[in-house]
Amino acid sequence: MIITSLLDTDLYKFTMMQVVLHHFPAAQVEYRYKCRTPNINLSAYLDEIRAEVHSLCQLKFTEQELDYLRSLRFIKSDFVDFLGLFHLPEKCIQLSLGERTGEIDITVKGPWLHTILFEIPVLAIVNEVYFRNECKDPGWDEGRQRLQSKMQLVTDDPELADFRVAEYGTRRRFSKVWHEEVVTTMKRQMGEHFAGTSNVKLAMKHNVTPLGTMGHEYLQACQALGPRLRDSQVFALEVWAKEYRGDLGIALSDVYGMDAFLRDFDMYFCKLFDGARHDSGDPFLWGERLLAHYAANRTDPRTKTLVFSDALTFPRAIELARRFAGRCKVSFGIGTNLTNDLGHEPLQIVMKMVRCNGQPVAKVSDAPEKTMCDDPAYLAYLRQVFQLPPSP
Which residues contact 308 (CB under 8 A, 6 or more apart)? Predict the structure, then answer.
């Protein structure tokens, strides 16, 4: 089977899940899958995907995996005790044929605490099932050559001594085997340039640093869980700070767009959080605006970290590193371009939270194609509340 461990997911799922256990244990949510790549036929593989998801739902954490989680400084013992009893509830996930030819529908509904771990392995399953059926000759040698060329852009340039890159590609990987080869090759050949991986299983197995803090779903859910919509972003950041007390201090900036983020990210948050993560829109403009915002809020940008993770390639990451060198700390998370670059077009698939406690939630991205909400009236209201321009 494709997924053989519940650790085969991204770290930020566990860091968010711990917040859910301690602050929102009763929250009910709904996630919905979407394929943004046109003309992809997945319906022929629906039974295969169902079998993989069934196997996923039989998994439990091993004692070795629980001990590893317990060793992470920010993971608390009661959360690990909870995970010792955990499995993914199969009754909460529905897979069916979509309305359009070739499409499939995947919906997850249930308690947030018990469904939060579905997203990453389900997307990895869909990807691997598709590619192992559609690409009988993967082109491993071409993939290895591409990986070598990317790494050499960094390792052969003495001006990039401080360059750090992490692997963030679990959900859109070509296959589990290729994913592991990418991580082990980067660890072996990039040395200190390799910051780590978002994948907890590979981090444990290969003794590299697991990386991640919060994802979009956390700030989205707070639209329904906070005191009022306008304060939901502030509420999310304050609850996070309460849980982690200064640890895991990278804030996600693009759930409402950069304008709204900067309005809420006041001097208190500038000083409290270690930095912010970019995930949509122009990364150069985003970085310049954030550095100016730090300066305006009496915070030395050189003490802060800007994390770039939006559809990055190595050349773009290097360009960003040069732009911001000496002005702040920078780090890069590269996903699809590392784990699914063998000469085949990657699938643009996502699984996003669309409801929490029965009410719609939304992400309003600086990249319009990344906006996701199933309620146009709510989306229009959210744009008004956060002083965002109307939908294009």
Answer: 277, 278, 283, 287, 317, 320, 330, 331, 332, 333
Q: Where do the structural domains in the chain lie, given as residue ranges? A: 11-136+348-385, 140-339
Q: Which CATH class is domain 140-339?
A: alpha beta
Strands 28-35 and 329-334: unpaired
Q: Can you tell me the distance from the alpha carbon of 127 to that of 96, in angstroms, rounded to the nearest whole number?
A: 17
The length of the chain in residues reads: 392
Q: Has domain 11-136+348-385 been given CATH number 2.60.40.1120? A: no
Cβ-contact 215, 16 below 8 angstroms: yes
> pTM for this one?
0.96
DSSP code of residue 192:
G
Distance between CA atoms of 265 and 274, rounded to whole angstroms?
Answer: 12
φ/ψ (deg, to 5) at 347: -80, 135
Q: Do the two domains 11-136+348-385 and 140-339 of this chain adopt the same fold?
A: yes
Please list the pLDDT of the chain residue by residue as tens digits (392 residues).
Answer: 999 999 999 999 999 999 999 999 999 999 999 998 999 999 999 999 999 999 999 999 999 999 999 999 999 999 999 999 999 999 999 999 998 888 999 999 999 999 999 999 999 999 999 999 999 889 899 999 999 999 999 999 999 999 999 999 999 999 999 999 999 999 999 999 999 999 999 999 999 999 999 999 999 999 999 999 999 999 999 999 999 999 999 999 999 999 999 999 999 999 999 999 999 899 999 999 999 999 999 999 999 999 999 989 999 999 999 999 999 999 999 999 999 999 999 999 999 999 999 999 999 876 666 677 889 999 999 999 999 988 76
